[in-house]
Amino acid sequence: MAPVENDAAAKTFTPQKNKGSIYIYRNENFGGAIPMEVTINGKIVGHTAAKTYFHFNVDPGEYKIESHAENTSHLTLPVKASETYFIWQEVKMGVWKARSNLQQVDKTTGRAGVLESKLISASTPESEI
After folding, report:
1. pLDDT tens profile 75-105
2. One-character DSSP codes across 64-75
């Protein structure tokens, strides 16, 4: 988990100057014991669990986000400077283990999901995404 002060700062929902802000969150308890790997542009950023989220401030451009579980869910996100984006990692029942589905959601829904979750430290620095 990330330090509490990093979690609090991310929950101000203020993007850095000339950067886009991406939140990838998993606010469900269903399948909570199953970690789900998240990649951005092919780089592993870490694994989510129940009630967790990632936050990245990134340069404008196109980002390919993937969630790896029993399936692989793909989402391509065009990011603009000073904009905030919320991606919900929905958990679904699978045949052998949990499945996931990435969906971009509106700011009201996304903020609520992030506020009930805790920040995870990414294994890849946002400067390398």
Report:
1. 999 999 999 999 999 998 777 778 899 999 9
2. EEEEESSSEEEE
